[in-house]
């Protein structure tokens, strides 16, 4: 394998997610298959090679980092920090746009809005509001396809992020059809899916990060840890997507 700076950066990032041992596993340890979609991110690869990467995060409330001790612990800020740490000298700019209760239809104007210069990558967090409101999964899928096609036409890479793991949501809504709609839209558009739901469920089942069952006094620290781990995992997915371009 050609040991390029990007591949070296990816190797360093993967070490952050690899458990050192069963008893000493990092809170952020995650199954490798969840972070390897196999989908390339060509715009990200070119941007990293040129030394500057612009990312736009679009979504509902969770993109703003509610419950964290500071914005620096929200996952978009942690994504930027991990990319900078893993790729010294890379200028990383992460812009966040969204708000509580936004549906994918309400996010489309954000995706379509004129930005100068445009992002290289859009991370689009979707599905929670639609699931909670009981909107039609097919409607969700149609809006996702519309948004992803628009980004592709502009030469912008996209990453879809699905719902947060929530026992309450799972108990009160049929989440599976919405997850299917997100997976199908991502596969049809050839873009990576960041499986936030499965990652959070893995960490909760392993009793590493479980926001719902955290004691009130310690909940902020757990939310901070979640933001740090999601940002770390996203940095691996972005670097793998960029490295996939070199392999193809």
Automatic annotation (TrEMBL):
Extent of the signal sequence: 1-25
Pfam families, per database record: NonGDSL
Domain of life: Bacteria
Keywords: Signal
Name this polypeptide is given: SGNH/GDSL hydrolase family protein
């Amino acid at each position: 394998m050609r040991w390029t700076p990007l591949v070296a950066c990816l190797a360093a990032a993967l070490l952050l997610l690899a458990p050192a041992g069963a008893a000493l596993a990092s809170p952020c340890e995650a199954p490798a298959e969840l972070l390897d979609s196999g989908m390339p991110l060509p715009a990200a690869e070119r941007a990293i090679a040129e030394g500057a990467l612009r990312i736009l995060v679009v979504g509902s409330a969770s993109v703003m980092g509610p419950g964290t001790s500071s914005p620096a612990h929200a996952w978009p800020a942690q994504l930027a920090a991990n990319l900078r740490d893993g790729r010294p000298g890379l200028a990383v700019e992460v812009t966040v746009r969204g708000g509580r209760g936004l549906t994918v239809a309400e996010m489309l104007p954000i995706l379509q809005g004129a930005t100068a210069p445009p992002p290289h990558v859009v991370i689009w967090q979707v599905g929670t509001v639609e699931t909670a409101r009981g909107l039609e999964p097919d409607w969700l899928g149609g809006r996702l396809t519309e948004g992803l096609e628009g980004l592709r036409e502009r030469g912008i890479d996209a990453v879809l992020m699905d719902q947060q793991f929530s026992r309450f949501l799972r108990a009160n809504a049929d989440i599976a059809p919405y997850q299917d709609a997100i997976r199908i839209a991502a596969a049809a558009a050839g873009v990576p899916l960041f499986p936030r739901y499965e990652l959070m469920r893995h960490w909760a089942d392993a009793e590493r990060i479980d926001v719902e069952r955290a004691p009130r006094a310690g909940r902020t620290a757990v939310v901070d840890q979640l933001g740090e781990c999601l940002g770390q995992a996203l940095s691996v997915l972005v670097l793998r997507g960029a490295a996939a371009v070199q392999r193809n």
